[in-house]
Design brief:
The protein has two domains: 93 residues, Rossmann fold (3-Layer(aba) Sandwich), CATH 3.40.50; 116 residues, PAS domain (Beta-Lactamase, 2-Layer Sandwich), CATH 3.30.450.20. The chain has four helices and ten strands, in the order βαββββαββαβββα. The strands form two sheets. The protein has a five-stranded mixed sheet with strand order 2-1-3-4-5, with helices on one face. A hairpin with a 2-residue loop joins strand 4 and strand 5. The longest helix has 23 residues. About 4% of the residues have low confidence.
Length: 223
């Protein structure tokens, strides 16, 4: 299922807004444009759209640049609309390949808790790659809305010590504070804890040893 990618869009002239409003209206299933009047800053990273003073539309990502000339009759120019549709669809697909390749499960839910994106990554269930994500449970969404940080973390049962999994939920809000969905990701804590313990020289201790004074290593993180 398609979900719109939030994308910054830079422009110079007031008249450019006419084209950008038409672009947003025509391709709202692909992109949610954030209009910014001004030039692209040197520290701008990631992906964006820009409209330059020569009436050229730039679609920019880390590994691709697409430049299109915008005709005056853009809304009635069939060849241009066809070319634009093809290029925007290709651009959208390029941007969406990144979460698809993430090994752990990433899920976006809309404001009603319905799944709008699922990369089918690993979530502790070895059959997760072939299973569709389920709608978000009501109690999770309510807890996210009521929590001041709009954040919830749950442990994920694991049948072995190969993974220490948690499921992290974050409520998504727009600039006006309106709730519009939830982002969920499964995180494997084991490699993070291993790296921290190695870098810090610290060790985990069992609860029964917390008052004994000496730290002991935990074989959970030993090969």
């Amino acid at each position: 299922m398609l979900y719109p990618v939030k994308l910054k869009c830079y422009y110079f002239l007031e008249n450019d807004e006419i084209f950008l409003e038409w672009l947003q209206s025509s391709f709202s299933n692909l992109f949610d444009l954030i209009l910014i009047k001004g030039t692209v800053t040197n520290n701008q990273v990631g992906h964006y759209i820009s409209l330059n003073k020569n009436q050229q539309l730039l679609l920019y990502s880390a590994n691709q640049e697409i430049l299109l000339n915008i005709p005056e009759d853009f809304s009635d120019n069939a060849p241009f609309i066809l070319q634009l549709s093809q290029q925007l669809t290709q651009f959208y697909q390029v941007l969406n390949t990144y979460p698809d390749k993430h090994p752990m499960k990433l899920t976006f839910f809309d404001e009603n808790g319905q799944v709008v994106y699922d990369n089918k990554g690993f979530d502790g269930n070895f059959f997760s790659f072939n299973q569709e994500a389920q709608p978000l449970e009501d109690w999770i969404q309510e807890k996210l809305k009521n929590d001041t940080k709009h954040h919830l973390t749950l442990t994920v049962p694991s049948p072995s010590f190969d993974h220490i999994l948690i499921q992290d939920y974050r409520g998504l809000y727009d600039q006006d504070g309106n709730f519009f969905g939830t982002f969920s990701q499964v995180i494997d804590l084991k490699p993070l804890l291993e790296a921290y313990l190695e870098d810090s020289g610290q060790a985990l201790v069992g609860w029964s040893d917390t008052t004994s004074g000496a730290s002991i290593t935990n074989n959970l993180f030993e090969d």
